[in-house]
UniProtKB/TrEMBL annotation:
Belongs to the archaeal phosphopantothenate synthetase family. The lineage of its organism: Archaea, Methanobacteriati, Methanobacteriota, Stenosarchaea group, Halobacteria. ATP binds at residues 19, 41, 182-184, 188-189, 200-201. Pathway: Cofactor biosynthesis; coenzyme A biosynthesis. The keyword ATP-binding applies. This is 4-phosphopantoate--beta-alanine ligase. GO terms for biological process: coenzyme A biosynthetic process. It comes from the Archaea.
Length: 246
C-alpha cells in the first residue's frame, strides 16, 4: 500500500502513515535505522492513547505555541524521524513563530545532515542551521553535543521532537525553555521538559502551528498567563492515566 491509498478513516491511519514515512526516510538516507526502532516504540504508545490528541496534549500544544511566540530566539530542532514525518509542517511552524530550523542528529553523519537540510529546503525551508556545528552542549559526548553557535546554542526556547533523554536533560540544564514532543509520558525527555507534548508528531506539529496562528495577535500578558498556568507534572499524569485507563 502506498501512503495515498490509506483511507483517512482507517482506524490505524496515523500509524500507517507514520510507518510509511519513516520507511521512506530510511530509504532516502534521512532517517537512521535506529529511527525505525524509535518509531516502533512511539507507535505502541500511540496505540494505547487511541491515536488521538488527548485534551492535556492539546493544552500542552497551546503552551508550547505561547512559549515560542514569547521567545527572543526560538529554535526547532530537527532529527531524522521528524524530517521524514513532518517536513512541510516543521517549515510552517517555524514560519508561524519566527523560529530557526536546526538539524540536530543523535547519529550524526555529514551525509545525513546534508540530506535532511536539502529535504527541508525541498519543503520550503530557507536558511537551515546545524551544518556549522561551531558550538557544543556541555556534558555530552562529542558528536551528540554539536550545535550551531547562532542556533540552538543561542536559543532561549527550543522545541525538540523525539529527543533522547541525555540530550533533553543537557539542554534543560542550560536553562533553556524546552518543549518536547514524545508519545511516552515516562521517557526521560518528557520528564525533563518544561512543556511535554505527549502526542504523535504527525498531529502535534500542525496543532502547535494552529495554536500559534490563533495566538498571533495575543498580547504578552495573555501569552505569559498561558505559559504560567501550564503544569508539566499534571500533563504527564493525565497522559499516563489515558494510557492506563484506555
Ligand atoms: P529516553 O532516553 O527519553 O528515555 P528513549 O530511549 O525511549 O527515551 P528513543 O528511543 O531514542 O528514546 O526515542 C524515541 C522516543 O520518541 C520514544 O519515547 C518514542 O515514544 C517517541 N516517538 C517515536 N515516534 C514518535 C512519534 N511519531 N511522535 C511522537 N513521539 C514519538
Amino acid at each position: 500500500m502506498v501512503e495515498a491509498e490509506i483511507p483517512a478513516d482507517h482506524p490505524r491511519h496515523d500509524s500507517l502513515v507514520t510507518r510509511h514515512r519513516v520507511e521512506a526516510g530510511v530509504e532516502k538516507g534521512i532517517t537512521s535505522r535506529q529511527g525505525l526502532i524509535a518509531q516502533g516504540r512511539g507507535e505502541a504508545f500511540d496505540y494505547l492513547l487511541g491515536e488521538r490528541t488527548i485534551p492535556s496534549a492539546d493544552a500542552a500544544a497551546r503552551a508550547a505555541a505561547a512559549h515560542l511566540l514569547l521567545a527572543d530566539h526560538p529554535v526547532v530542532s530537527v532529527n531524522g524521524n521528524a524530517a521524514a514525518l513532518v517536513p512541510a509542517e516543521l517549515v510552517a511552524l517555524a514560519d508561524a513563530v519566527g523560529a530557526d530550523l536546526e538539524v540536530n542528529l543523535f547519529n550524526r553523519t555529514e551525509e545525513r545532515m546534508r540530506a535532511i537540510a536539502e529535504h527541508l529546503r525541498d519543503h520550503g525551508a530557507t536558511g537551515v542551521k546545524g551544518l556549522a556545528a561551531d558550538a557544543r552542549i556541555p556534558n555530552l559526548a562529542h558528536e551528540r553535543a554539536k550545535v550551531d553557535a547562532d542556533g540552538i546554542a543561542d536559543a532561549d526556547v527550543v522545541l525538540v521532537p523525539l529527543e533522547d533523554g541525555d540530550r533533553a536533560a543537557a539542554l534543560s540544564d542550560l536553562g533553556k525553555v524546552e518543549i518536547v514532543i514524545d508519545l511516552n509520558p515516562m521517557s526521560r525527555s518528557a520528564r525533563v521538559a518544561d512543556v511535554p507534548v505527549v502526542d504523535n508528531i504527525l498531529r502535534a506539529i500542525p496543532n502547535i502551528t494552529t495554536h500559534a496562528r490563533e495566538l498571533a495577535d495575543a498580547d504578552r500578558p495573555t501569552l505569559e498567563r498561558i505559559v504560567g498556568e501550564f503544569d508539566p507534572e499534571a500533563t504527564l499524569a493525565a497522559a499516563e492515566r489515558a494510557i492506563r485507563d484506555g
